[in-house]
Design brief:
mainly alpha; 2 domains
Amino acid sequence: MTHGAEETASDAGNAHVSGHTHGLVVGLIRIFALTMTVWALIFVVNNVLNFWFDWPGTLSIFGAAGLFGQNPADGGIPPLAWVQFLSYTGSLVAIALIVTRTPMRTLHADSEMLGAWAGYIIRAAFWAVLLIGLVDGFISFLRVEGFIVVIVGQELAEQLGRPTFRGQYVHYPLIIVALVIARFNHNLGFHWLAVLIVAAELLIVIARFVFSYEQAFMSDLVRFWYGALFLFASPYTLIKEGHVRVDILYAGFSRHGRALSNAIGCAFLGLPLCWTIITLGLWGKANAINGPLLSFEVTQSGFGLYIKYLLAGFLLIFAISMLVQFMSYLLSNIATLLSEPGHEQDLEEHATF
């Protein structure tokens, strides 16, 4: 009896250690995935503060007196730089506290939450390009045909011919409207955007060959919507498990083998790719994404759509939404590896819009 009791106590102790280790692993994975997601969003916000509002930037604290032996002209760290620096460290601490205080929350629950975040970003971007394409195309049509002066007056007509004015007072409000629509409308139909692209291209063909009429804004609209369809549908397809795989070994893997393969791909291929796009595009004022966005870059055609700068922004939306969904996918697959409750469900069942 004594020997049996000792074995029972030993088994209980091993189970406690195993459970503690499992909880620690789950907690660290949750912290990693949530931190990567939040830091990506903070990086974008700080980028706006740096280049739109002239904040000093997080890295400026490393050039302050007493750090790394450097002595800048101002002799100290700008207070706003500390605010930006603390946005990263503070968010990490906050996430760690939340994770430690919710030990019973599963990886699947966090995966669903991140999937919902990615879905909201994509829905908002979808509605934004739809509304901006229609409204900007209508304004361009009125300008090229000379109707806009009659409708809005000479002064406003001239202002609408300036990219900065149209971006700030037409495009930005439409983006806000898109954010509101995406909050309440969870139905996303990329097939409708594809139909609109076909309709816009058909309109060009009919106008050109039947009526001998063609304007730059018509082809700009097709390119605008096509770019959105290609880049925004990619994370949507990832959520729906619809990407075409180069399936040489994957089909022969067990369920856990597939989950391991997916987790490794998310952490070591997908995440670095997204961060590369974000950092290279936003690191400097003249970089590939920042440059067009800051200058409201447009095409050379004066009567085309004023949306070329938004095409650069498509890359940012693509990278952010893919990063969020990669972290959601990472959590789902690790949950499968750890046999968490709900791991027997298909991944796409809980990664919905």
